[in-house]
Amino acid sequence: MGMFGVRPELIQYASQASLIPTWFLAIYIMVVILAPLTYRFWRKFGFLSFWAFVVVAALVDIAFFVADIRWLGWSNYFWVWLAVHHLGFAWRDGRFSSPPTLLLYSGLGLLALWLLIFKGPYPFAMVGSPDEGLSNTLPPKITLLALGVFQFGLLLAVEGPMRKLLASVRLWAATVLINSMIMTVYLWHITVMIVFVGLLYLADGFGLGLEPGTQSWWLSRIVWTAVLLALLLPVALTLSPLERRSRNGDTLPPSPVRQIAGAMMLCLGIALLAMYGYGGGPIPKLDIISFALVVVGAGVSGLLPTFGDKS
Description:
Elements: H1 8-19, H2 22-33, H3 35-45, H4 47-65, H5 76-92, H6 99-118, H7 142-157, H8 159-165, H9 169-179, H10 182-202, H11 215-243, H12 256-276, H13 286-300
């Protein structure tokens, strides 16, 4: 974009928009790399470990709203999502088996979410917010944890019927196919949209002048979604093998210290790029530093292929 004379402000905006999904990748990698430690925590304390994360997340929110300690709120990227991840431990250990109980938990999660939004200081939108200074996701708030419990209970309550449906070979094959590239689809769908919008802008803004919310705008969403899906599919099919790439069985994995250190560098670089885009940030050349953190972190943690590695 710089080579074609695009304004720096537009480069920052477009790259920031494209990189929005990668915030999830940053915290997901950290939660996964800490899974052996958090699973031991779960095995020792059970649901007390889940509630420990909930309490810490709630205390962070109290500090955020009551004491106006905003910087501490960023630690909720760990406490909120580690609590949600703990629900997965509970599921895999068979701690949830009764659909009525799961629906009760789901209802309590929805009630907590309603109270936090309509009786508390939290905004209604779970993603984004009309208030630039307040968001449920930036940094995460306990509203996301309440939403997670609501969705978790609701989906697991229908696990039995869904497993029966997946006994169909065709439906199961489609599920496996989609899930084999689901992270690729998630990480690239906005990038595809940004590139497409840029091309439409170069074509005198064709299709971009409709008033949002009008009948014409809603009808155009059908075409819009179909075109974006058609553009996304070849991208996902091309890049999804990276998602399924595994380490050579004969190669020893790096030490835990290297893996954790590399993951921290990698995730910090991703998070900074997602927050500021290319050309933005509080210090000069932060985008180059962030990109270097991603590459170096990947190398330290053993993610980059080495010579002779054919995995």
